[in-house]
Amino acid sequence: MTSDISGSDAFHATLHSLRVWDTPLPVFDAEAAPAEPLPLFRAWFVHAAKAGQLEPHTMSLATVDADGRPDVRTLMLHDADARGWHFATHATSAKGRQLAGHPDAALGFYWPTVARQIRVRGRVTACGPEESRADLAVRSRGALAAALTGRQSEVLGSAEELAEASAAAWERAGAEPDAPAPTWTRYVLDATEVEFFQGDPMRRHTRLRYLRTPAGAWTRELLWP
User: Fold this and answer.
1) Residues of the chain with pLDDT > 70: what percent?
2) Which of the four pLDDT bands, split at 50, 70 and 90, describes residue 123?
3) Please, which of 12, 134, 143, 148 could form a disulfide with 139 given CB 3.0 to 4.6 Å?
4) CA distances from 146 to 24, 46, 57, 132, 212 (A)
């Protein structure tokens, strides 16, 4: 009990001691933003990387399951182009199954180094086998080994079971760099809404939201922070 109390005290003391955005931050002129969100996303992405943001290509993917319950996890961005925001996973994983049942999803990027967030909402489409194989072909041996290990989101019997399957997958990935991983799938989120958030030390944050009309054009609007 004493250790629990001590742990709780340490947690709350640490939590309440933390501060954000106590350093100079970039200025975002929303009036000068481009007519569409993709160029701004790419510019902010490059800026965050050059500013020292670690792993700016990591993002949160939010989906809903068959019962309508939300789910979220962190994964990597593979591209952002005119088609949308690209990522990949096993079609048999929890997120793959959820996307098959409910293809509407959301992405979240947070780059604390520059106090910027980007939120993306839209419908996700699975790419075909050829594009999915090409996605895996350009990645590292470790990525291929992880894909070959498979069984993502299934219940694991023991750490030893994982170690054995992973070792076999690493060996195969080295011997067969083009080894197929049939369930590996590339996905594209076709955005209908993209929000850019720039933090401000005075809490006068700038929020610019792009909304796509049924005709495919983009409109822009500022939001209260």
Assistant:
1) 98
2) very high
3) 143
4) 40, 28, 19, 15, 37
Q: Which residues of 163-196 are buried (b: 16+ CB within 10 A; e: fewer)?
A: eebeeebbeebeeeeeeebebbbbbbbebbebbb
3-state secondary structure of 126: strand
CB of 199 within 8 A of CB of 210? no
CB contact set of 87 (below 8 Å; sequence gap of 6+):
59, 61, 75, 76, 77, 78, 186, 187, 189
Element (H or E) spanning 117, and its range? Answer: strand 116-126
Confidence of residue 142 (pLDDT cuts 50, 70, 90): confident
Cα–Cα distance for residue pair 148/172, rounded to 1 Å: 8
Show the CA angle centred on residue 44, arms to residues 21 and 38, nearest 5°: 140
Cα–Cα distance for residue pair 204/146, rounded to 1 Å:
43
Q: What is the mean pLDDT of residues 29-55?
A: 98
- CA 127, CA 120: separation in Å to the nearest integer? 19
pTM of the entire predicted model: 0.90
| Beta carbons within 10 angstroms of residue 32's beta carbon | 7
Q: CB within 8 A of 183, min separation 6: which ones? A: 90, 91, 92, 96, 150
Count the neighbouring beta carbons within 10 Å of the beta carbon of residue 104: 14
What pLDDT shows up at residue 3? Answer: 57
- Whole-number pLDDT of residue 178: 84
Which residue is it, tokens 């979240």?
108
190 contacts 87 by C-beta, under 8 angstroms: no
Rounded to whole angstroms, the Cα distance separating 206 from 112 reads 15
